[in-house]
Amino acid sequence: MTPFSAGESRPLTTLPVLACDCHMHVFDSTRMPVAGAVVTPPTASIDDYRKLQARLGSSRHVLVQPSTYGTDNSLMVSVLERNRDTARGIAVVDESVTDAELDLLNDAGVVGIRFNQVQAGATRLEMLQALAARISRLGWHIQLHLTGEQLVEAAQPLLALDIPIVLDHYARIYHVPGIASEVGKNLLRLMESGRVWLKLSAPYLSSQSDQPPYPDLAQTVATLCQRFSDRLVWGTDWPHATEEDKPDDAKMVDWLSDLMPSPELRLRVFADNAAELYRFQGD
């Protein structure tokens, strides 16, 4: 049985060698008790996650600091330190972080920082410019989880940042159908800048469907693959902390793969783009 994932079958898709899951989390409800967090899932360990990797056929992964732990990145770092060759991390910091602390995170395998404004609390968008300047020397990027409304409002400030930007979860484009057109226009505007990447992760957070197929996302994915194939990466969002009914990760892999017309495109999205963005080259 694969913890926190529906179904037991392997995907029909054979993922490429060095496929990278670019969005997953770990939780430890015993070691890291929390109070007042919006999302408080049960323990989901790296050993639990390995069972998903074996089922899907992926080998690399990116640990994303969840909103649950705020700016306490210690659990994520402890996992990174044991998996340095195959894992990278995205931390959460605020303006109080010191350069020495950033250097320690970098040494552990962190390659970016996250602003989660959907489950907000630890960071504010007003911190973007100052923190972007602080992390640029490390070659890091900024990852953002935004509502559609927030993406529309933040598009211009994001374009002004001289640093790579990564948008979570298909930019939640169809989460609120009434503004999907406006979100889509701003997403394309950001992608056309050449500095913005998009995570093809957690389609259930962006679609009006909670399981494959996601008909509202299909044409969007086709357009993105045609125009921005070098800046798309894949992720599971395991352990799907926001979802009471866990999705079938294998079916989501197959759905996404079926939207890609060539093996070369699948290689880019599932493996090669992640190697570049998360600095796996040469490992």
**Cross-sheet strand order for the largest sheet:** 1-2-3-4-5-6-7-8
Q: Specify the helix fraction band.
A: 25-40%
Structural class, judged by helices and strands? alpha/beta
Q: Summarize the main sheet.
A: 8 strands, parallel
> Count of DSSP helices?
9
Please report which band the strand proportion falls in: under 5%, 5-15%, 15-25%, 25-35%, 35-45% or over 45%.
5-15%
Give the full name of the CATH homologous superfamily: Metal-dependent hydrolases
Order of helices and strands: EHEHEHEHEHEHEHEHH
How many structural domains in the coordinates? Answer: 1
Give an overview of the whole structure:
- Helix content is 35%, strand content 14%.
- It has 283 residues and is an alpha/beta fold.
- It has an eight-stranded parallel beta sheet.
- Helix 1 links the parallel strand 1 and strand 2.
Summarize, please.
This protein is an alpha/beta fold and 283 residues long. It is built from nine helices and eight strands. InterPro entries: Amidohydro-rel (IPR006680), Aro_Compnd_Degr_Hydrolases (IPR052358), Metal_Hydrolase (IPR032466).
Topology:
Blueprint (H helix, E strand, L loop, with lengths): L19 E5 L21 H11 L3 E5 L9 H9 L4 E5 L7 H10 L1 E7 L11 H8 L5 E5 L2 H12 L5 E3 L12 H12 L4 E6 L13 H13 L4 E4 L13 H10 L4 H15 L6
Parallel strand pairs: 1-2, 2-3, 3-4, 4-5, 5-6, 6-7, 7-8
Helix pairs in contact: 5-6
